[in-house]
């Protein structure tokens, strides 16, 4: 295959797997020791004791580098060192003894832990050949590790070749070390060093060996295709360096062999700036670690490009530069699997649903100003999916999930299409309801990981536990009517004393005190509990509730409609299937409901896509949903976040996209998309009104669930505030009923 054809195919695969983003890690380079027991004939990093000076950086020197890097916005501490120098040099053994250690790996574990604990930088370790015991010792103190395979050719270990006299470069030993990393669950970086005497066939054999190991363990986070640079003073100083064409051929071959999802890296400092676009077009989607502080100690003759230059070169190639962590995005998404429990919380709390660092410090419930999103070029893949949606095609799970990767111009295109659909279907008027929340108890039998509202018993846990009596519930309903509410929303924990009759009595108490109020009450969890305790079918219990005065059901307790997520988030709650069955039963007896999604915790984009597809399917079947309500995860007081097992809510980009993509995916079967002002705050809610949303929800007198989770937005947001919020988005506002009918004697208003 001609190189141009290879590059064309490789670029298509890269765009399919990674879109328009090219990543890098902002790092400091910590050369813990330059002593090494190997004598690779192209290496200037390894030194003899006489030339190396101090055998090891001491603790203070390591921390000084790390602190300086953290102050410059670095996130990674890359530890590079020679392979077990104590096996060769007495100077290394003596220096280690003075440091209180017997081995280099033991000292590495100590200083990596110090760096993480004192600076927050995520260590990436490159200590050479290791076995399972070594990985077990270092895994608690690192986010990832790596070793370059370099070559799978035994021939290069023969006399006169690059690896002669370097036992640690024997391919079988390096492959065994990479395999041991997989068995130990370590996110791992490896790669090839090309131009050291290997043939192209031998490069292919090395890439196939890496692919086979990743197929078995799934631990390879990136593969580096690094070009040999001849260095004065080495035995290979006169060896011809590989040409750019040769490098491009190997990168393209790597992409074709390793597939679209693999991250393929080429160092950006080993070619002129003019070649960086070609590297991208050949299949590169990552520039590796780039330091604003420390040099490339392995290639000191080749300084890192300034990040501004790297960003410009990436943009010139039609891509956008984005920072990543030391652990690659695919593995960061599953940090609880791939990281030690001491490391996983720092990873999860830093990333969005892509596994990349969140695009700003904005967080749900913080009350932060809306951030400015970084630019990125449009991609043909997103444009094609949007075109399919415009043509009326129902999007599949893969297409929906891909929409959630939209960034930059793609993000704007998704939002614009959603906003156009909103205008076409429901017009310009922003609606809202005047309602009151009555959370009648916070005592609950369940242990949902996201919930900071519920209490496990009548004893105080994270604040006082309570249970409202029927008289107080009725009083609050009557007071809501006096204050102009058309709806009361009633939900609570699953109190151990509650049964189906309790819910019937709650409705009766409300209707006795406020006969004309719309009763919007009881999540599917409460309905399921009520039906089971009375030995009734869902349909029979819901019919009883309807006759008692229940008018509609909230679609909460949906969280993410996927067993994989619910097993982590709420394992003892209703299943996804049961949630859908309650909704189906409610619709069958004439009770309309809302539908929700609670997102930004432990799930991935494919789960969001699956959830939206299931909501659409049920709506096509029953037509019973009145609205779709995205509920971003408020993390601050959530138990699962405090345990370090969840992300810190969605990013701003993701929060906006959820509403926009819901509009696109659910069109035309579900016409109302609601934005939660209490979750996002007024400024972000206004932005979402330009991305497909048409409703601001309720005024929520006595909102308590979001505030219990740490949200700062107010307890009530009245009609004047609703009108002002809509006006800030250039839209009129209108009070509605729960069923989206205009309240009599009200007309759309831009002002009070």
In a nutshell, what does this entry contain?
By secondary structure, this protein is α/β, with parallel strands linked by helices. Strands 1, 2, 3, 4, 5, 6, 7, 8 and 9 form a nine-stranded parallel beta sheet that branches.
Walkthrough of the structure:
It is a single chain. This protein is an alpha/beta fold and 752 residues long. The protein is 41% helix and 13% strand. The strands form three sheets. Strands 1, 2, 3, 4, 5, 6, 7, 8 and 9 form a nine-stranded parallel β-sheet that branches. A six-stranded parallel β-sheet has the order 11-12-13-14-15-16. Helix 18 (470-482) links the parallel strand 11 (435-439) and strand 12 (487-491).
Gyration radius (Cα, Å) is 29 Å
- Assembly form of the protein: single chain
Distance between the termini: 70 Å
Structural class estimated from helices and strands = alpha/beta
Low-pLDDT ranges: 457-462, 703-714
Specify the biggest β-sheet: 9 strands, parallel
Mean pLDDT: 93
What share of residues are in beta strands? 5-15%
Please give the number of β-strands.
18
């Amino acid at each position: 295959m001609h190189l141009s054809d290879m590059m064309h195919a490789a670029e298509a695969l890269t765009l399919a797997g990674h879109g328009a983003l090219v990543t890098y890690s902002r790092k400091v380079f910590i050369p813990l020791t330059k002593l090494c027991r190997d004598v690779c004939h192209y290496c200037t990093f390894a030194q003899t004791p006489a030339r190396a000076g101090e055998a090891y950086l001491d603790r203070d020197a390591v921390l000084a580098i790390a602190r300086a890097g953290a102050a410059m916005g670095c996130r990674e501490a890359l530890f590079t060192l020679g392979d077990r120098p104590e096996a060769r040099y007495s100077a290394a053994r003596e220096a280690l003894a003075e440091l209180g250690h017997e081995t280099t790996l033991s000292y590495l574990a100590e200083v990596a832990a110090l760096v993480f604990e004192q600076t927050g930088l995520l260590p990436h370790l490159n200590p050479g050949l290791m076995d399972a015991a070594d990985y077990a010792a270092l895994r608690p103190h690192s986010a990832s590790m790596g070793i370059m395979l370099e070559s799978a050719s035994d021939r290069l270990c023969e006399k006169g070749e690059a690896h002669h006299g370097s036992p640690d470069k024997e391919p079988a030993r390096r492959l065994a070390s990479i395999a041991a990393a997989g068995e130990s669950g370590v996110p791992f970086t490896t790669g090839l060093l090309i131009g050291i005497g290997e043939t192209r066939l031998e490069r292919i054999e090395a890439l196939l060996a890496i692919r086979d190991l990743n197929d078995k363990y799934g631990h390879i986070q990136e593969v580096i295709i690094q070009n040999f640079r001849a260095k004065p003073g080495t035995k290979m100083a006169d060896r011809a360096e590989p040409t750019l064409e040769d490098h491009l051929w190997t990168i393209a071959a790597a992409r074709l062999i390793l597939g679209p999802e693999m991250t393929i890296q080429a160092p950006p400092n080993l070619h002129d700036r003019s070649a960086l676009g070609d590297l991208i077009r050949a299949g590169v989607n990552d520039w590796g670690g780039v330091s604003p502080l420390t040099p490339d100690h392995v290639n000191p003759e080749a300084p890192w490009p300034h990040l501004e230059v790297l960003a410009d070169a990436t943009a010139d190639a039609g891509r956008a530069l984005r920072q990543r962590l030391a652990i690659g995005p695919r593995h960061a998404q599953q940090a609880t699997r791939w990281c030690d429990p001491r490391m996983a919380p720092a990873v999860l709390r830093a990333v969005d649903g892509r596994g990349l660092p969140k695009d700003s410090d904005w967080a749900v419930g913080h009350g932060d100003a809306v951030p400015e999103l970084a630019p990125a070029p449009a991609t043909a893949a997103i444009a094609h999916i949007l075109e399919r949606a415009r043509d009326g095609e129902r999007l599949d799970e893969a297409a929906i999930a891909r929409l959630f990767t939209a960034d930059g111009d793609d993000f704007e295109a998704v939002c614009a299409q959603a906003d156009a659909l909103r205008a076409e279907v429901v017009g310009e008027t922003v609606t809202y309801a005047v309602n009151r929340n009555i959370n009648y108890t916070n005592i609950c039998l369940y242990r949902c990981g996201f919930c900071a509202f519920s209490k496990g018993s009548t004893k105080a846990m994270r604040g006082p536990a309570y249970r409202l009596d029927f008289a107080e519930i009725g009083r609050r309903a009557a007071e809501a009517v006096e204050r102009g509410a058309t709806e009361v929303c009633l939900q609570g924990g699953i109190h151990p004393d509650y049964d189906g009759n309790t819910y019937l009595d709650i409705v009766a108490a409300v209707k006795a005190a406020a006969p004309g109020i719309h009763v919007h009450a009881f999540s599917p969890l409460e309905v399921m509990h009520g039906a089971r305790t009375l030995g009734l079918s869902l349909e029979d219990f819901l019919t009883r509730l309807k006759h008692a005065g229940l008018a509609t059901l909230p679609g909460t307790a949906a969280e993410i409609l996927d067993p994989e997520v619910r097993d982590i988030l709420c394992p003892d709650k209703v299943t996804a299937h049961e949630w859908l069955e309650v909704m189906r039963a409610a619709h069958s007896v004439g009770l309309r409901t809302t539908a929700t999604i609670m997102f930004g915790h432990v799930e991935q984009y494919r789960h969001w896509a699956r959830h939206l597809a299931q909501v659409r399917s049920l709506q096509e079947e029953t037509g019973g949903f009145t609205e779709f309500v995205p509920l971003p995860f408020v993390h601050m007081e959530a138990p699962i976040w405090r345990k370090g097992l969840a992300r810190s809510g969605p990013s701003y980009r993701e929060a906006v996209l959820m509403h926009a993509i819901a509009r696109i995916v659910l069109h035309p079967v579900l016409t109302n998309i609601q934005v939660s002002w209490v979750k996002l705050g007024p400024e972000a809610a206004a932005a979402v009104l330009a991305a497909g949303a048409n409703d601001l929800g309720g005024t929520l007198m006595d909102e308590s669930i979001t505030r219990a989770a740490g949200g700062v937005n107010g307890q009530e947001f009245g009609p004047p505030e609703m009108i002002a919020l809509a006006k800030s988005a250039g839209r009129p506002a209108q009070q509605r009923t729960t069923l989206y009918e205009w309240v009599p004697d009200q007309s759309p208003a831009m002002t009070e």
